[in-house]
Structures are given as structure tokens and as C-alpha cells.
Amino acid sequence: MRLGPAELPDGAEPVGGGYLVRADALALAGGGATRFYRHGWQSWSEARWLELSEPVQPIEPASRRPQADDPACALAARHGGSAVGALATPDGVLLLGALEPGARVEAGDTGLDGRYEDGTEGPWFLALGPEPDVFAAYAEQLAERLGRRPDRPAPRLWSSWYGFYRGISEEGLREVLAGLEGLAFDAFQIDDGWQRAIGDWDPNDAFPSGMAAMAEEIRGAGLTPGLWLAPFIATPGSRLARDHPDWLLRDDRGRPVPAGDNWGGPFFALDTTHPEVEAWLTETLRRVRGWGFELLKLDFLYAAALPGARRRPVGRERAYRQALALVREACGEAAYLLACGAPILPSLGLVDGLRVGPDTAPYWDNEDRRAHLHDPTGPAARGALLTSLARLWLRGLVHADPDVAFFRSRYDLLTPQQRRALQDLGLVAGFKGCSDPPAWLLPDERDALAAWLRDEPAVTRLGERVFLLDGRRVDFEAIVGAS
Ligand code: 9PG
User: Fold this and answer.
1) Strand 122-129's sheet: what is its strand order?
2) pLDDT of residue 171
3) pLDDT(2) > 80
4) How far is the C-alpha of 73 from the C-alpha of 396, rounded, in Å?
5) For atom 12 of ligand 1, which residue has the closest CA?
6) What is the number of domains present in the chain?
7) Closest atom of ligand 1 to CA, residue 165
8) Under DSSP, is residue 101 helix (H, G, I), strand (E, B) or coil?
């Protein structure tokens, strides 16, 4: 199936599996379609095939929008997504994808409408054919333009978040480290809870020995030391925000741009085009690297791409990519960067791992947020599963992190089938993370975790949500449907 000359935009040139064209805005005819692939802006934003007949409903409350999806499009009248969109037409899947930051694709009445936000004539890729082929061809074009990382295998990661949340301390983590002995993890990542404040990236009183000592202990246990930080945001009470109010991204009336609500109140984005912020970012990341952390989970990254009045006039997603490039430079090529809450396309080529869905949780659904507030990004196993599965086409470009799987039954409301589904998701995505404190695991649960960490099944996709793992049929659709 190919696009016929009658349907091709002016100037379209053939390229592997599709066509390239330069335009600020582009309309593609795709009649007869009933389903649209919407690709949410950042890691947590929803990605899925939806029915065009579904109503478009804004996320509530409005204060959540900046952290759930692109707030600039929160009130759009039509179904749409960031960077790429596709329609299932009677002739095959019609895909329109941007090859540079800053674009959006909406479903029109009769086709796809793509647009670069800042009006630049940017490159587009378009293709018509079977779904796996058009997404693979798009991924190939993205790799050529933005880069592809990395050649090494994805680290099998233990993270403190979904066991302890913010309640971490050096003694607690020491106990975990001892309990992990004999399990085939590669990296041990300290999550949110170690820092003085969001913006003040120094250890708090729960880490009296300091972070270099923690990194040393982790390395001593044979694991890669990992640390979480959110370098592009600050809470209003942080020293950073109090000492440098001019570092905050502002709107055109001079008010700080809210980046979301968490840690007991609103938090703000930094203007990463401010030279002093650039210098601070470099200094902060070098310091963290100097402590001995080789894996950095960089979170809430979308904040650097929010709409605002920047010092340097540059499109917001380009500003984000420049800031991320600076972070990469400060950290060095050897560092493993795991981006989270990150705009997808503008992160490619600069990070090693990328979270491709919202937070999972030791429970299945977050119905209040999903059904009543129209926010599909609330922590829940279901949401993490669905959006991650819809982003598997990114696997060849970056390690696609679907978030952790659970093996514990303690403090866990998942059924055994649901728990198994998250474990299988890790196998399908090729990225394994777990946050279970080893002391919580029953002997058979620990055995299951040990076996999972060593398992590397051949993965065959049979359908949108159906896979073969070494001959074992895994039907995620059945699990989602049964809930
Ligand atoms: C640490 C956590 C974990 C987790 C990340 C991220 O919308 N929100 O308010 C929101 C809060 C937290 C969050 C995602 C969204 O989780 O994905 O793995 O690192 O931060 O605070």
C-alpha cells in the first residue's frame, strides 16, 4: 500500500517506507477512518488508539494539566497529540510524524492536520501501510535525525519509589541493599526523598553520611549507583526559588509559570535559557556525577518545555532539547540518563532510557482521576500498561521504560494476573524495574523475581495487545477487558 500521487503533498520525496516533506502545516486526506492514534506529549501523557467518536474532554482540575499533557493543547476541540498521529483507514494506517521538536498532529474530519507550533517549516514523515511498518519507518527517520541510543542492554533497576515513596533513609536503603544480594539487578536507584528541597539538590537529614558515601556503598554491593532529581523545576520554598526568583520561567505578565502541583503545593519551571540557570545546571549535574552516581533518573523534565516568556527567544521544545543537551554534556557520555515526565520526541538521541507511560501503582485502576476527572495519568497499573504498550515502537530508538513490576503481595492490591501482566510488560518492553523491598517478599515471590530478572524471552507481537513470549501467549487485552 502506497500513497498515490493524488494524495501526496507538494514537494514530497520518497524515503525509506514513506515520504519526506517540509512544511509549517500539512493536511493529509485519510477518509473513512474511525480510529486515531494519539500520542501524548510527555512520558505520563496518554498514548493509545481511540475511536474518533469518543468525546474530547479536558483534564480536570485545570491545575493538573501542565503535568498530565501539553497544557497548550489542553482545550483543543479535536483529538490530537504531540509529534505524531495516525489514522486507521480502509487502505492501511496513515501516519504523519514530525522529525523535529515542536509539532502537533490532530485528527480532522477527513484526515490528519500537522503543524509546527512556532511556524517553522519543519520536516515531516508520512506513510501509509500496515501499522508496524509505518511506525518502524517513522522511528528510522527519527533515529537518523535525532540519534539513537544506546547499544548497551537496559539496566535491571531497583528503585526506591514504589516501595518507600518519599520515606527513605540511609539505614533503610542499606537494609535493602543487603537484601538484594543474589538477585540479578544492575543498578540501585535512590528516588525522590533524599534531597533538601525540589531545587536544592543536597542530602537531607535522613542521609547524614552524604550522597558520595551512599554511592560508594551501592558500588560496593556490585551495583551501579543511581539517583533521582528534577533539574528543571523548583518548589517556592526552596533556597533556589527564594534566592533566584529571576530564574523561574515567567508568563508574558511576569508571573511564574506553574508546572504542576505536588510536594504539598504548586511548583515552578526554571527558564533554562537563562545563562545563570545554564551554569547552575552544569554545576549541579557535575556535582551529582562527582558523588559517584552513574545513572540519573531525571524527572519532571517537561517543565522546561512549558509555554512561557524565555530569556532567549527559542521555541519551547527546542529550548528543552538545548537544556537536555547541556545536561548530557555536564553528565558525560558514560552516564546513563533515564528521562521521566519527558517530552518524547525532543528527548530522543540525548537520553538512554525514557519512561513511556504514567506511574504504575500496586493497584489496578485510578478510576476517579481517569473516568471522572478525564485524567488518564493518575498512578495505576492499568494506565502504565496501556500507554506503554502504545509506545513500544520507540524501542529501537531508546530504552523504553514501562515503570516497575511488583512481585510482593504485601501492600499490594493487584490480583496475581494483574501482577503478572506488569511483569510481562517489562519483558515485552525489554526494561525491568522493581521497587519491592526484599524483606517484604515471600520465598516464592523472591524466586519469581530472581527468575524474571534472568529471563530474556523472544518477543513476537501478534496483535495490538497480544504477544508471544518464547511461545507463551500473553493477552493484555484480556486482562484489561476483565477489569
Ligand atoms: C517521585 C516520582 C517517581 C515516579 C515519577 C514521578 O502528576 N504528579 O503529581 C506526579 C507526581 C509524581 C510522579 C508523576 C506525576 O511520579 O514518575 O517514578 O520518581 O516522580 O516524586
Assistant:
1) 13-15, 18-23, 122-129, 92-98, 84-89, 35-39, 47-51
2) 98
3) no
4) 28
5) 262
6) 2
7) 1
8) coil
* H-helix or E-strand spanning residue 228: strand 224-229
Confidence of residue 54 (pLDDT cuts 50, 70, 90): very high
Dist. CA 377–CA 368, nearest whole Å:
11
Average pLDDT of span 324-352:
98
Residues in contact with 409: Cβ distance below 8 Å, sequence separation at least 6, in sequence order: 442, 445
Q: Are residues 359 and 274 in the same domain?
A: yes
Which whole-number Å values give the CA distances from 346 to 100, 146, 282, 323, in the listed order? 7, 8, 19, 11
Same domain for 330 and 196: yes
Best of 166, 262, 431 for a ligand 1 pocket test (most atoms within 8 Å of beta carbon): 262
The reply to whether 230 and 283 lie within a common domain is: yes
**CA angle, corner 334, sides to 331 and 337, nearest 5?**
60
Atom index in ligand 1 nearest the CA of residue 340 equals 17
Tell me the whole-structure pTM to 2 decimals.
0.98
In whole angstroms, give the CA distance from residue 271 to residue 304.
7
Q: What is the pLDDT of residue 4?
A: 74
Distance 231 CA to ligand 1 centre (A): 14
Residues 6 or more apart whose Cβ sits within 8 Å of residue 342:
42, 43, 298, 301, 302, 351, 354, 355
pLDDT at 347: 98
- State which residues form the domain around 71: 5-146
Let me know whether 10 and 99 are in one domain: yes
Best of 192, 201, 404 to mutate for ligand 1, by most ligand atoms within 8 A of CB?
Answer: 192
- Residue with CA at minimum distance from ligand 1 atom 2: 192
Instruction: Say whether both 289 and 216 belong to one domain.
Output: yes
Taking Cα atoms as reference points, which of 179, 162, 181 lies closest to residue 419?
162
Report yes or no on 462 lying in a domain: no
Amino acid identity of residue 177, one-letter, is: L
Same domain, 173 and 123: no
Q: Is residue 465 part of a domain?
A: no
Output the pLDDT for position 246: 98
